[in-house]
Write a structure and sequence with these properties.
Strand content: 5-15%
Structural class: alpha/beta
Number of helices: 21
Helix content: 40-55%
Oligomer: single chain
Strand order of the largest sheet: 1-2-3-4-5-6-7-8
Length: 536
């Protein structure tokens, strides 16, 4: 018999813990490409949704109330309690009961720095909208080398007018003080508006600004334009676009010793360019770059996706979808220079991870695998074989690739009730969604060659079914259509959240960048506090 008994120790009493704090969702929504005259992507306008920080706060406040309600009911199960309203994107309101419409700088920085938006840009620029009241020291959190900052002209003029009104009131007050009035009159030149001083101060340390909302020439415009590197023009709202562009390009920019391209004139970007006709007009009157999705429309000058070589691509894709033998596949790929060229590049990128270097098409096929070759054959329908442009800088290819990866990733959020047998179908829909823009044939007729499931064809042609709704959501996110995204997420695609849209968009872009670039973009945040490098 043991002389001593082990004494049992009671577990320490712990107070009930509430739910963990909810962190803000990713405010990133989508991006629109900006393309130069050589039809190469130079950057994207980035879209963000407002209220993500406030939503997290409201959710945490609600959770705190729910904890208190639980404690009260534990003490008195018959107690009367009032449950707080659910917090959703649709009913989110600020403290004044108004809808949240403006994105904060902290939300944008959170998305850029911690959610992978910067890395998703690869070698390209990210154009970001800010307001006049955000031109402060906190902007030093933005790497100047990566992010041109867009400000609307109305914001600038409004700030100047507000400052002038305050100055006028001060001058009226001086009328009663003769000595102070004399000092005011002897102070020299009229004071430069504060917002112009802020723009100059930030410009001098490396920031590049983009002026939007300009429609005509007016007195004082010269003083504003010298603070900017880019001007965005919506040509639908400009009555004399050629004269305005000529005027803007006649404004000498301040000398910048660190300029890489040696450009001494304002760069003119045409915005809202959605058709080939709008592109041709903007190009012919002297615009340097073009923002919009005009390149998805069939146009003899913009699109080189016609002819026998692309018909061979369609034939190869048909073969791939029938699961061919390796020997048959190699023969077919070798007969397609479009696929051969890019497959070797893709396989070489893969080989750096697998430590295998492809020597020929057979090696490339073994390294990449049939599934990947099938996907890239599908996507290479949108590549420009005659232009010496990197895969990640080709607008149409980039758009379709990211769309396909996005739909594949998002389809996994639909659950068992989503009606999808495989996420591969979602990828297929995204990848073939613009096929009718490549050939002078209706999409349904073109797709009939591939023996595809009817749900795939109907989704592409009619936007019907779950796959069609996913495609509509992808298109809405691409143009930053927040309302349509909200509608689709709350109606047809209820298991998908706006945060899912943000995260899967970035994952899709990351997949695309990883498969088309040999090395990731350098970390631009190290020098964010002392921006002094020139943008490309």
């Amino acid at each position: 018999m043991a002389l001593f008994k082990k004494k049992s120790v009671a577990a320490p009493i712990q107070a009930p813990r509430g739910p963990e704090k909810i962190v803000p969702e990713n405010p990133y929504l989508g991006r629109e490409p900006i393309i130069n005259r050589e039809q190469t992507i130079i950057g994207y306008e980035l879209f963000f949704r407002p209220g993500t920080t406030l939503k997290a706060k409201r959710l945490n406040d609600r959770n705190d109330v729910m904890v208190q309600i639980a404690k009260r009911l534990a003490e008195d199960p018959k107690a009367e309690v009032n449950y707080p309203e659910e917090v959703t994107d649709a009913n989110l309101r600020d403290d004044d009961g108004k809808e949240v419409t403006q994105v904060t700088l902290s939300e944008i920085l959170y998305s850029l720095k911690t959610k992978g938006v910067t890395q998703s840009l690869g070698q390209h620029l990210g154009f970001i909208n800010i307001r006049a009241d955000q031109l402060g020291d906190e902007l030093r959190g933005f790497p100047a080398i990566k992010f041109p900052l867009q400000i609307d002209l109305a914001e600038i003029l409004g700030a100047i007018e507000a400052e002038a009104a305050i100055a006028k009131e001060a001058e009226q007050d001086l009328e009663t003080n003769a000595e102070a009035k004399k000092d005011f009159e002897d102070s020299g030149e009229p004071r430069v508006p504060e917002i112009i001083e802020k723009l100059e101060r930030l410009r001098s340390v490396g920031y590049k600004f983009v002026l939007t909302g300009l429609t005509e020439v007016f007195d004082g415009l010269d003083d504003i334009l010298t603070k900017f590197r880019y001007v965005k023009l919506d040509l639908q709202k400009v009555t004399k676009p050629f004269s305005l562009i000529d005027y803007c390009k006649g404004i000498p920019l301040p000398r910048d010793e660190k300029s890489k391209d040696g450009s001494k004139t304002l760069q003119i970007i045409a915005s809202n360019v959605h058709t080939p006709e709008e592109y041709h007009h903007a190009r012919d009157i002297g615009c340097d770059a073009f923002e919009g999705f005009y390149f998805v429309k069939s146009d003899p000058e913009l699109s080189l996706h016609r002819g026998d070589e692309y018909r061979k691509l369609l034939e190869l894709l048909t073969l791939l979808l029938s699961s061919p033998e390796l020997k048959e596949l190699v023969t077919a790929v070798e007969a397609n220079p479009v696929v051969s060229k890019h497959l070797m590049v893709i396989a070489e990128i893969d080989s750096r991870r697998k430590r295998e270097k492809p020597e020929n098409i057979r090696d490339a096929a073994v390294i990449s695998g049939i599934k990947r070759i099938t996907r890239w054959t599908q996507l290479l329908l949108y590549a420009d074989t005659k232009a010496k442009v990197a895969l990640d800088a080709t607008p149409l290819l980039q758009l379709v690739c990211v769309r396909a990866f996005f739909m594949e990733s998002l389809s996994t959020k639909l659950g068992a009730g989503g009606g999808l047998g495989s996420s591969d179908l979602a990828f297929l829909v995204g990848g073939l969604s613009l096929i009718d823009n490549l050939f002078d044939e209706p999409a349904r007729e073109l797709l009939s060659h591939f023996n595809l499931p009817s749900v795939v064809v109907d989704a592409i042609v009619d936007r019907s079914g779950i796959l069609g709704q996913l495609l509509s959501l992808a298109e809405a996110a691409e143009v930053g259509d927040l309302e349509k995204c909200r509608h689709l997420c709350s109606d047809e695609l209820k298991t998908v959240s706006l945060d899912d849209v943000a995260q899967d968009s970035l994952l899709a872009i990351k997949n695309f960048v990883a498969q088309t670039q040999f090395a990731p973009e350098e970390d631009v945040w190290d020098a964010a506090d002392s921006p002094n490098e020139e943008l490309a």
